[in-house]
Amino acid sequence: MATMADFRYDKATWCPGCGDFSVLAALQQVCVRMGLEPEDVCCVSGIGCSGKISQHFGSYGFHSLHGRSLPTAQGIKMANQDLTVIAAGGDGDGYGIGVGHFVHACRRNVDITYIVMDNHIYGLTTGQSSPTSKKGFKTKTSPQGVAEEPIKPLELAIVSGASFVAQAFSGDLKQLQRLIEEGMKHKGFSLINVFSPCVTFNRVNTYEWFKENIVNFDEEEGYDPTNKAMALQRIAETDSVCTGILYQEQRPAFHEVVLGATEQGTVKVPLEIPNDEMQALIDQFRRA
Amino acid sequence: MTNEFTWKVGGAQGEGIDSTGEILATVLTRMGYYIFAYRHFMSLVKGGHTNYKIRASTTDHVYYHGDDLDMLVAFDQLSIQENEDELIEGGIILHDAKFQAQTKREGLRVCSVPLLDMAKELGNPIIKNMVAAGASAYVLDIDPSNFYEQIEQQFGKKGQELVDLNKTAFNKGYDYIKENYPDVRRPAPQATRPSKGYLLMNGNEAIGLGAVLNGCRILAAYPITPATEILYWVLANLPKYGGKVLQAEDEIAACIMAIGANYAGVRSMTSTSGPGLSLMMEALGMAGISETPLVIVDVMRGGPSTGLPTKTEQSDVNGALFGSHGETPRVVIVPTSIPDCFYQIGRAFNLAEEYQLPVIVCSDLLIGMNKMGFQDLDLSTVDIARKNIVTQEQLDALEKGAFKRYSLDTESGVSSRSIPGMKNGRYCALTNEHEETGLEIEDVPMRKAQMEKRFRKLDVLEKNINDWGFEYKGAETPDVLIVGMGSTQAQIEEATRQMDGLSWGHLQFRCLAPFPKDTQKYFQAAKKVYVIDNNYTGQLTGLIAREIGFHDKLTPVLKYDGNPFTIRDIVTAVKG
Ligand SMILES: Cc1ncc(C[n+]2csc(CCOP(=O)(O)OP(=O)(O)O)c2C)c(N)n1
Ligand code: SF4
Q1: Quick check: helix, strand or coil at residue A142?
Q2: Quick one: closest CA in A to B199, which residue?
C-alpha cells in the first residue's frame, strides 16, 4: 500500500499561502485513501503556477504546454485506460488558451479527473486578468477593470456534456478531498473547479472573500445534483460562488464506446499482426 | 511510345468523373497494365472542372501520369477547353452529344456520343459512366469481357439486375461508336505481364496501411485535404486490431494526443496538411524536449494559408525542417513514390521510437491522392523494433526513485524511457528544461548538457541516413546533376531518359533532416546542378546551399502553379 510519502516528489515552490498547496495535499491524500499505486496514476498539467503540480506529485506525470493538459491527458487515457489520469491546471490555462479542448473533453466524456485551480488571475505571468476574473476587476492588463463577461466554467461544463461537475475551495480541505475522491471514482469526465486563492496577485478573491460568499450545496437540503435544470439555475443564483457536487450523471465513458474499444488498455494490445492478416489487409488493394 | 497509352475523362465536379476513371483504372490493372491514375479536382463539391487521367504501360511501373494525352472523354465543353492542349497530334476527343463540341486544335478526331441520353434511356443518368467506358473500350480495342468480369465483381452482390444494367450501358456505348465511328481507334498495346493480383493504391492508403502494419495503434487527426484519406483508411482497419482513431477538435489537440499516447507507450501518429502542420508547431517542441516519440504525416498541398487546397506543391518543407520555437532535433522524410510511402512510414515509427523525437513524413498531393498499380509490397520490411524502453527488471534493480529518465550518461543522446504503469519508473515529462530525473531547472551546465544530449541523437542518425536518405542514378562523376526531393522522382527519372549525349546524374532526396552529407561528392563533380523544386522560393535549393554549399552551381527549377512538374518542364530546363 502506497503512503503519502510515495505521492510526494520534490518540494513545492508555490508562494507561502498559495491555494495550490491544498490541492496537491488533497490529491495525495485521496490517492492514498483510494489505495492507488503511484505507477498507476498519471498527473498531466499545463503551464502556470498551478501547472507545477505534476512535478510535485509523485506519480507519472506530464508537464505539457500552456492550455494543452487535456489533449495530453486524453492521449494518455486513450493509450492506457487502466491508468488513473488526472489533468490539472489554472483558469488561464484551462479556460483561456485551452477552452476549446475543455469543451470537447466534456463532450467526449473521457474518464479523466480535471482539476482547475481557479484563482481568477494569471499567477505565473505576474497578475494579468483571467477569463474567470469578474467584470470590472483591475489588473495589469485591465487597468480600468475587465470589460468582458467572465467565462462560467461550471455551466460551460454542464452544457458541454461533462458527467461530473463539482466546485471546491482550497480553504476547506475536507470538502476538497471528498470532491476530488468522488470525481476520481466517477466514470467519465469530471471537472473539479477549485477556488484556489493567489495570495500574491489577487487582492479581491481572497480566502476571506470566498469564506464569506460561498454557498455550499452539499449542505443544502433538496439540492439534487442529477437535476440539470436545477443545477444550472442554482449555480446562476449564486453567481457561481458555490461548492459541492453540482451535477452528476451516469454515462458510458469514451474508452467504452470508442470504435475499437478494448477490455484492457491499448498499450497491452499486441503489435504484431499475423502474416496472413497482413496479407489480407494488402489484398484489399489487389485487383484480381 | 508504343508500350503506353493515356486516357482522360473530364466534366463538372459531381458528374461521376472519379467513378468513370476508377472503372477503367481497375479493369486495366486487372488486365495486366501498369497504371498511374491522376485526379485533378477543385475545392468545390459541385461544379467547376474535374478530370481523371490514366496512363497505362505494358512494360514498366508508371509513377507519373505523363505529359501527353491520347484520348479525352469530355462530359462538357469546359473539359475540352481545359485539356485539349495535352492531346497528341491525331488525338481523340469523345464527347457527350448533349453539347456541340468546339476545339481550337486541328487534326484531332472528334466523336459525338449521346452518353447522357443513352443513360437516361436506361432510366439512370449516373450510368453514363458505363456508357463512356464502353465507348472508350471500343476506341482502345479492349475486349468487353474484361469489363463484364469487373462489373460482375463490383455489382454481383447487389443483384443480377444491377449487373445487367451496367452491362447493357457498357454495350450501348461500345456499339454506338463501333457503328458511327468504326475507324476512330487507338488500340491499346497488349499487356504482357501476368494479369492477376496487382495492387492499386494511393500514397495515403499506403501510409495508412504501413502505419497499421508497423504497430501504430492510435491515430488522432483533423480532416484536411489531401490527407483525410489516411484517417478514413485507418478508421476502417485499425479498430479490429485494438487500435483507436480519434477525430480531434483541431490539429493542436490531434498532435498533442498523439504525443500523450506515445508517452503512454502506444505507437501513435497524426496526419495533416499545411495549415494543420502550422498548428502543430508548438507541439513539435513539446515532443522534442520531453523526448517523446512522435510521427506526423504532412501531405503537402499548395500554400500559403489555405492556398490551393486541391493542388500539389512541396512548400511545407521549410516548416517541417525549421518550424517550432527554440531548437528541436527532428527527422524529415520525403517519400519518393506511392509504394515508398508504405516503406517510409514504417521507418518513421522505428526512428521516432529509437531516437525519441518527432519524425515528420512529408508526402504531397501528387503521390498522396493519386493511384498507382504495382506488383506488391515487401512485407519483410515490416519490423516493429521497439527500442530504448527500460525493462521492469532494470527498474527493479534500481534504488527506489533512482530512475533517471533524462540520464546524461548516454553516448547516442537517447536515454531509456519508462512507460506509465511500470513500477519504480516514475518521472515527469517536462516541456521546461530539466535535469536527469525530470525536475525543472535553469542552471547553466545542466541546460547545456541536456541540449547537447538531445542533439547528439542527430550525430548517430546522420550515419544511418546515408543508406536510405537518397537515391542516385547516372554517371559516377556527372557533368550535369539533376536533384529533386520526394515525389518529383518519377518525372526526373523519365526526363533523364531524354538526356542522351549528356553526362548526367539524378540525385533524389528521401531524407532532408538530418541531411545526407554523402551526397556531396555528386555536387563536387558536377559542373551544373539543376534543383527541381515544386515551390516558389526554392526550399530544397536553399537547404542544399545551407548544408553543403555549392551556391554557384545550383540552378533552381521552380514550379508553383499547383501542378506537378512535367517531364517536359525538366528536359527544357536542363537542355534549354
Ligand atoms: C502559448 C503560450 N502563451 C503564453 C504563455 C505564458 N503563460 C504561462 S502561464 C500563463 C498564465 C497562467 O495563468 P493560469 O493558468 O491562471 O495559472 P496560474 O499561474 O494562475 O496558476 C501564461 C499566459 C505560455 N507559456 N505559452
Ligand atoms: S503567484 Fe499566486 S498562484 Fe502563483 S504561486 Fe504565488 S500565490 Fe500561487
Answers
A1: strand
A2: A286
Q: Using 50, 70 and 90 to split pLDDT, how confident is the model at A288?
A: low
Q: How many whole angstroms from its chain centre is CA B122? A: 39
DSSP state string for B127-161:
GHHHHHHHHHHHHHT--HHHHHHHHHHHHGGG-HH
Please report the beta strands in B77-208, taking only residues with DSSP state E, as ranges in sequence order.
Answer: 87-96, 109-113, 198-202
Name the closest-CA residue to atom 6, ligand 2: A15
Cα A18 to ligand 2 centre (Å): 5
Query: For cell 466524456, what's the residue?
Result: A109
Q: What are phi and psi of B51, to 5 degrees?
A: -150, 165
DSSP A228-276: HHHHHHHHHHTTT-EEEEEEE-----HHHHSTT--SS-GGGS-----HH
Ligand 1 atom with minimal separation from the A124 CA: 19
pLDDT by residue (tens digit) across B90-140?
A: 999 999 999 999 999 999 999 999 999 999 999 999 999 999 999 999 999
State pLDDT tens for residues B191-219: 877 767 899 999 999 999 999 999 999 99
Cβ-Cβ contacts under 8 Å, A54 against chain B: 428
Q: Among B251, B417, B428, pick the best mutation site for testing chain A contact (most A Cβ within 10 A).
A: B428
How does DSSP classify residue A51?
Answer: G
Instruction: Tell me which residues of chain B have a pLDDT lower than 50.
Output: none
Q: Grid coordinates standing for B455? A: 542533439
Which atom of ligand 1 is nearest to A117's Cα?
21
Contact B243 A267 (CB under 8 A): no
Q: Which of A55, A62, A266 sits opposite B244 (nearest CB)?
A: A266
Q: CB–CB of B240/A260 below 8 Å?
A: yes
Task: Map residue B321 onto helix, strand or coil.
Answer: helix
Comparing CB atoms, the residue among A61, A75, A266 nearest residue B243 is A266
- Which of A271, A281, A279 is CA-nearest to residue B380? A279
The candidate with the shortest Cα–Cα distance to A269, out of A87, A100, A81, A55, is A81
Q: How far is CA B115 from CA B74, B120, B347, B414, in A?
A: 10, 9, 48, 64
